[in-house]
Amino acid sequence: MKLFRKGLVFLVAIALLLSMAACGKKASKETSPTPTVSDSTPSTPAEETKEPVTIKFFSNLPDRSSGQGLLEQTILDNYMKENDHITIEIEALQDEPFKQKFQSYVASNNLPDIFNVWGQPAFFEAVMEKGYAAELNPADYASYNFFEGSTTDFSYNGKLYGLPRNQDITTIFINKAIFEENGVKIPGTYGELLQAAKDFRAKGIQPLSINGRDKWILNLFFQDLVIKVSGNQQTIYDASTGKTKFSEDPDIRKAAELFKELVDAGLFQDSFVSADYGAAQNLFLQEQTAMFYMGAWEVGMASNPDNSEHFRENVGLIPFPVVEDGKGKITDVCAWNGGGYAVSASSPVKDEAIKLLNYMMHPDNWPKIGWQQGLVVPGQKYSDYMTGEENVLQVQITDVLNTATSMSGTPWNDFNPGDWKANVENYIQEFAAGITSVDEFLAKLDSAVQ
Hints:
Elements: H1 7-17, E1 53-59, H2 67-82, E2 86-92, H3 95-107, E3 114-118, H4 121-129, E4 155-156, E5 159-160, E6 163-164, E7 168-175, H5 176-181, H6 190-202, E8 206-209, H7 216-230, H8 235-240, H9 250-264, H10 277-285, E9 289-295, H11 309-314, E10 315-318, E11 332-333, E12 335-336, E13 339-343, H12 350-360, H13 366-372, H14 392-403, E14 406-407, H15 420-432, H16 438-448
Parallel strand pairs: 1-2, 1-3, 8-9, 11-14
Antiparallel strand pairs: 3-13, 4-5, 6-13, 7-9, 7-10, 7-12
Helix pairs in contact: 7-9, 7-15, 9-16, 15-16
């Protein structure tokens, strides 16, 4: 796809594109013991004299004391300890401020040496196409054990421009105690999910929390429904590219009807359309909802000492339920590789920045430390790093990944460039809020296809 013909057009467009889903990350409140780097991790050989080098690092992980921010900070600190001529200047912002600042950096052609990217067309394709990201050498990562296909969306025209951090997969986190105490069955089918919503509402309990204000999560929930109805990961992408129509595909229409039925039954918490990520998650952490729809990047909830012992003992997860009479299997999942890193093509210390990136993503660093500290589900194979002491969510999400028969890839709302993302996210939020009908929602999606 050719996104932009002129730089000015690109800058105007990217201003609209940078409302990127926080897939795979947020400023987590998780706390973990300070990770330590493996003794086997390669470091830069000592030399008699080295010129001082400063690397500017732009991150979307502002919480440096817990979660992925802790992991990132630890690895960067280790690198500076092993390379005393290197200074890493870190600028870390929440998602939306990050995107705004990124836009400013692009406009001035002054991107930091290393920066976070989301490996989807709606964000990274334009960055690669316009030459803002440095080309990486795939041979450098031959032994890094990235999952097959995980670098696809970090590549353009056969060249590699970025590396993924994690394996992202949607799931429904559950509080087993709330289900058991109220005699509600943990859902394995759509019908059971609908019944659970009704049963919990009858008892005055909010069934499932979701951050509807952020919109993208609603797109993912809808995609999960389409997958389970159609049994075909390509269905929603064919409609997104104009090969078919949203309004004419019977499986997409059925998924929209089921989505509306769940909303009308009160599955989502009160005022879910105005709830941001933190508000939705806190309801679940405080055991005020029985379920929480989110991605695998939240596996640390089960081991975070800031969460109550009762919560940690009762948290679990389930795959998105199958739909009765649907063609999708429980093992057909919505999964992709989201956040990652790239190096600025115009960096004055580009070679040093690439060395740092390679160090960060070395198997003994991001995947090993992150997995063993319960912080991430890496985008690299991590079976060799399993210790038998994984928390329950790590064990369960690994089982989901290992048994998956199909994975979606890039979320449908991030699949196209231009104003596609902003439009379809607005349309799903309007639909969830009851502003539009099924017919109106599907017609609007058709109108968004270029």
